[in-house]
Amino acid sequence: MIKKAVLQSRSLLVLLCFFIITLHFGASQAAEPKVFSLDQLIAMALETSPELKMAEQDILAAKGEYKEAQGGLRPQIDLIATGGPSEDAQFPTVALTGKNTGVIISHDEGWGRIGVFGRLDFVLTQPLYTFGKISNLKDAAALGVEAQTAAKEERRNKIVLNVKELYYAYLIALQGKNAARDADAYIDDAGKRIKRLIELKAKNVDPSDLYRMDAFAGEVKAFTAKAESGSRVAFAALQKAIGLPEHEVLRIKETELPRNPPNLEPEEEYIQRALTSRPELLEVKKGVEAKGKLTDAAKADLYPSIFAAAEGSFAGAPDREKFDNTYIPDQFNHSYAGVFAGAHWHLDFGIGRGKLDKARAEYQKMRNTQEFAEKNIPVEVVKYYQDALEAGKSFTAYEQAAVGSRRWIVTAFSNFDLGIGTARDMFDAIDRYGKNQGEYLRSLYNYHVSLARLDYAIGKRTDMP
Fold first, then answer.
1. CA–CA distance, 206 with 197 (Å, rounded to integer)
2. Long-range contacts of 55-59 (CB under 8 A, 24+ apart)
3. Is the dihedral of CA 252, 253, 256, 257 positive or negative?
4. Mean pLDDT across the chain, nearest whole number?
């Protein structure tokens, strides 16, 4: 029994420990901040962007205009229902008083009795031929939907570019802080070596070298402060761009920008992609076509519209006797309907011509915009392509230079310790290392930004929502 009780106690203790460990692990997992990659940041920015939501409403509005224009091809009906009081009335009687004379005997009871009446009038109109008024407006509205869809895509690409630029700026600022720490460590090491040789009264050192070391240390601190400020600004802007709530902690998966440059395709390939895939070009192209349709609609508005119609009217007053006469209509008791064809032609003295001239001017303006875009977008592609080539070569060269200057630092430190080198040699090596590292980081950042802008310039779309 005792052994059984001991075994039960041990089992309970093991289960309790396992439960506590599980709770602790779950709590630590829940408290751990989210870690995001670049693709995840872009997806969040696209999902929460108010600009894309506005663009979606523009598309819905354009679709509404299309439905409105399409409805112009269908029949339209106008209904008017009225009702109100009516005086009771009966047919009058004509009493003959002579051969060709008579008097009307009224059977109405005066104004003592007031009844009610109701009436329904309708007109149904079906356009038959409008010289292109309605069809051109419908086509223009359909092109407007396509233009707004392309505009949304253009806004989307801008959001992607903005997130990439902020992301690269944040990572390069982090790398700048690391480079500043390296330089500070070299300066601190150099200071210790100078003080040690001063104490030993070595000939290759001078007390003024300590002042020079302080000057270098001040520059490094200033660079560190600038890198820290840049990282904070880029981090805050990135957090706002992706719509992350302030109470959530943002952590980037990557710690530095990649140094493996992709192989760029020939420049002409990128130009052709831009001319076929750039959303702005598609937007302005559809805009030109839409303006052309609106111009045709304005021209057609100068001609008549032929239509078929049906018209009818029904009225009834219970307390009034119906009066049937072809030439004298009874407004309170009747029913009739009929069909007919007609033409509507609006004539004015300059208003229609003015609208047509305005439509033609807007069409020509849109065509000029298209020509401007087709000329300048290739130039933009070439610029970003050449920037990427230049920055790629630069950061590769400066990376090699930074390796060489780091070796220079090691050699200068060794020579200083052996008494065959000076503190100036150490400071020159550290200074060159800092400059090479700074140029390397700047070129690396410019390279990634140029690639991102090149993707934007050719209208490249990543697999994002």
1. 9
2. 55/148, 55/151, 55/152, 55/155, 55/156, 56/152, 58/148, 58/151, 58/152, 59/145, 59/148, 59/149, 59/152
3. negative
4. 84
pLDDT at 195: 86
Which run of H or E residues covers position 140? helix 133-199
Q: How far is it, in rounded angstroms, from Cα 321 to Cα 90?
A: 5
Interatomic CA distance for residues 151 and 366, integer angstroms? 15
Structure tokens at 273: 């992609």
Those residues whose C-beta lies under 8 Å from the C-beta of residue 322, and which sit 6 or more positions away, are 330, 333, 334
Q: Which residue has the tokens 């269908």?
A: 74
pLDDT at 371 over 60: yes
Helices (H), 304-422: 351-418
User: Worst-scoring range by mean pLDDT, 271-280, 317-326, 374-383, 398-407?
Assistant: 317-326
SS3 152: helix
Q: What angle (nearest 5°) sits at the alpha carbon of residue 439, between those of residues 438 and 440?
A: 90
Which is more confident, 17 or 133?
Answer: 133
Residues in Cβ contact with 209 at an 8 Å cutoff, skipping those fewer than 6 apart: 194, 423, 424
pTM of the model: 0.79
Tokens of 182: 């390296």
Confidence of residue 60 (pLDDT cuts 50, 70, 90): very high
**In whole angstroms, what separates CA 35 from the centre of its chain?**
25
Among 80, 77, 89, which residue's Cα sits nearest to residue 119?
80
Tokens, residue 416: 């200083």
Cα dihedral: 18, 19, 20, 22 (round 10): 80
Mean pLDDT of 55-62: 94
Burial 301-318 (b: 16+ CB within 10 A, else e): bbbebebebeeebebebe
